[in-house]
Amino acid sequence: MPNCKVTRGPLLRAQAPRRGKPSLGLSWRSLHGPAEALASAGPRLPGGPQPPPLFSRFVCTPLSAECPATGPGTGPGPEELLALRSAAAQLRRTALEQKERIRMDQETIRELTGKLSRCEGGLRAPPAGAAAFSLFPPFPLGCGGCQVQQELPARTNGSAPTAPALARDALHTKMEQLEEQLLSKILTLQKERQAANTDRNQHQHDIEKELSSLQNRVTELEHGESCPAGIPPDAFKVTIPVQNNYMYARMKKSLPELYAFTICMWLKSKALGGLGTPFSYSVTSQSNEIVLLEWGSNPLELLINDKVAQLPLSLKDKAWHHVCVAWTTRDGKWSAYQDGEQRGAGENLASWHAIKPQGVIILGQEQDTLGGRFDATQAFVGELAQFSVWDHMLAPAEILALANCTSRLQGNVIQWDDQAVEVFGGASKGSFAACEEGKKA
């Protein structure tokens, strides 16, 4: 049945159909308008002819199946329909996104609540012995996490999307504060440890100095070897009687930056094996800046900046010998002398290297760190004297004069002086006359 629009009209009376005209079930009078219909519907006397029953007039207007608009401007156009459909799709997507975000926020809240509960439970029941020492100071309200947990209910009263973000920010802030406290505590502990190490080293140094002073005094009293008045300050020797890692002598003065040097000394070895280390010079960045060393079955070696040259010297006969080593940075040339005679020479030993200043000179021990960490197997056993340093290579004639005691040439960088040498660990000082000792030998 086609769609139609039905409108209700005024009431009408049914009329009999006229002859010769088709009957439509309605009186033609109904088509004349409401005025005539109402007049015909007036009251009738009793006993008179009764009017026909009243009927409502309906007008049936056919409509299309799509129900289009009946006039311009009464319905949305195609573009408006498209916009409405897009808006509806966007609203649907927004609703889905909001739903997903709410689900994720709920999971985040559950996870944070669990972590905070574990944190609070752990603080309420600390393990045995944990109170003895802790890197963290006590929190004023029990726990930073507990404060966050107390803040969460108040902050979640706001909008749902921002509550988890605020909780995370608060938790991150507390974590950063804990990290800062931890870092500060670590730095404080490191400073305290460094200060303790410094104090311990200084205390050990003072003890060794006092012990050495007492040992020297005992040696002087026992052997009567104290230098009487009038003896030159360089007429002494250092004695290291036992091979260990704590007996040594130290020069109070250091070296400047050098591009050449000559080092001379008198020595008498009492070692059964290798000579050991008559002297070593160490700096902060290089423990083997200058070293004279004979270790085990290896030959005597001169080390400069950890570069090695082997010296053809023989010093194991338990006699006094005058030893000199000379070096220049130009092409790394070097030479070695024993008792005034040149026994070896070479080049390319630490070429163009400059000897670094402000180091430590140790007699009798090889340094693995600046001024310490000695190895007993590399220690010197015997006597040392007349250790001197020049800032250039001495001529062979000058070295021979020193060995023959015909010259008292003093080093222009380091001089052998009783006030410039400290002894430690049981090493002692005694009188020494180079030429007389040589004749006795």
From TrEMBL:
| Pfam families tied to this protein | Pentaxin
What are the GO MF terms of this UniProt record? metal ion binding
Q: Which residues form a coiled coil?
A: 175-224
Q: Identify the residues that the record assigns to the Pentraxin (PTX) domain, covering every copy.
A: 234-435
Q: Does Manganese show up as a keyword for this record?
A: no
Supply the alphabetized keyword list: Calcium, Coiled coil, Disulfide bond, Glycoprotein, Metal-binding
Carries keyword Cell membrane? no
Which cofactor does this sequence's record say it needs? Ca(2+)
Instruction: Fetch the PANTHER family from UniProt.
Output: NEURONAL PENTRAXIN RECEPTOR, PENTRAXIN
Q: What is this protein called?
A: Neuronal pentraxin receptor
Protein species of origin = Amazona collaria
